[in-house]
C-alpha cells in the first residue's frame, strides 16, 4: 500500500471518529464514561467536549509519529523496502483506536456491550495482524523487535521476526479463548501481551548466541 493512500485513509478514519462523536454529542450524558476497570465496570469520566476531541487528537498524534519516524531512521532504506507492510500497520493501529472509540460511544448511548470481550477480541486481532506484518519487516530502529542482538545482525533480525510473528498469532488465539472468561480479561491481556513481547526478546538472544558460537568454531 502506498504511503499517500495510507495517509488519506488514516485521515478519513480520524475524520470519521471526530464526526461520529459530534453527531451523537447531544445524545451523550454528561459527564461521559471514558474508562472501565478490570471487571468491565465504568470507573473514569470526562466532560463531553474532552471525550469527543481526545481520541481524534490521540489518533492524529499517533499517525504523525508513525509517518514521521521512518524519515529520521538511519536505516530508512530498509524501511522503504517493506513500506507497504509498514503502512498497513499504521492502518491497523488506527483501526484499533476506531473500535475503542465506537465502543465507548455505544456504551455511553446505552448499549451495554461487554467491554472486556470487545477488548480481548480487538487486541487479539491487532496482534494477529501485527504478527503477519512483522514477519516482513527488515532491520530498523523504530519498528519491530529491537534488541541489541536483532539490531546487530540481519540474520538474527529475520529469524526473530519470523518467530515473533508466529508468537503474536498464537497470542491472538489465546486472547480469543480468553473472551470466554471476560471477568479475567485484564489479567489475560497483560499475561498474553507481556509474554508475546518477552518470548521473542529471549529468542533473539538465543539465536545470536548460536550464530556467535558457529562463527567461533
Automatic annotation (TrEMBL):
Residue ranges of every copy of the DUF1648 domain listed in the record: 12-60
Keywords: Membrane, Transmembrane, Transmembrane helix
Protein name (record): DUF1648 domain-containing protein
GO BP terms, alphabetized: response to toxic substance
Domain of life per record: Bacteria
Species this protein is from: Ornatilinea apprima
Entry-linked InterPro entries: DUF1648, SdpI, SdpI/YhfL
Transmembrane segments: 50-72, 84-107, 113-131, 163-181, 187-208
Pfam (any one): SdpI
Amino acid at each position: 500500500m502506498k504511503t499517500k493512500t495510507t495517509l488519506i485513509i488514516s485521515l478519513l478514519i480520524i475524520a470519521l471518529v471526530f464526526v461520529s462523536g459530534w453527531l451523537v454529542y447531544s445524545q451523550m450524558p454528561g459527564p461521559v464514561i471514558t474508562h472501565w476497570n478490570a471487571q468491565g465496570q465504568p470507573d473514569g469520566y470526562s466532560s463531553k467536549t474532552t471525550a469527543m476531541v481526545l481520541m481524534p487528537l490521540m489518533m492524529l498524534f499517533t499517525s504523525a509519529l508513525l509517518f514521521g519516524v521512518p524519515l529520521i531512521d538511519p536505516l530508512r532504506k530498509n524501511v522503504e523496502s517493506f513500506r507497504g507492510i509498514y503502512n498497513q500497520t499504521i492502518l491497523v493501529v488506527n483501526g484499533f483506536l476506531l473500535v475503542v472509540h465506537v465502543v465507548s460511544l455505544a456504551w455511553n448511548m446505552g448499549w451495554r456491550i461487554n467491554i472486556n470481550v470487545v477488548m480481548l477480541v480487538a487486541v487479539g486481532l491487532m496482534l494477529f495482524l501485527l504478527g503477519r506484518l512483522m514477519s516482513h519487516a527488515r532491520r530498523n530502529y523504530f519498528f519491530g523487535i529491537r534488541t541489541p542482538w536483532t539490531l546487530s545482525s540481519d540474520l538474527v533480525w529475520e529469524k526473530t521476526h519470523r518467530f515473533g510473528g508466529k508468537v503474536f498469532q498464537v497470542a491472538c488465539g489465546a486472547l480469543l479463548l480468553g473472551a470466554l472468561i471476560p471477568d479475567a480479561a485484564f489479567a489475560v491481556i497483560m499475561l498474553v501481551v507481556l509474554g508475546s513481547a518477552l518470548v521473542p526478546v529471549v529468542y533473539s538472544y538465543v539465536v545470536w548466541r548460536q550464530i556467535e558460537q558457529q562463527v567461533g568454531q
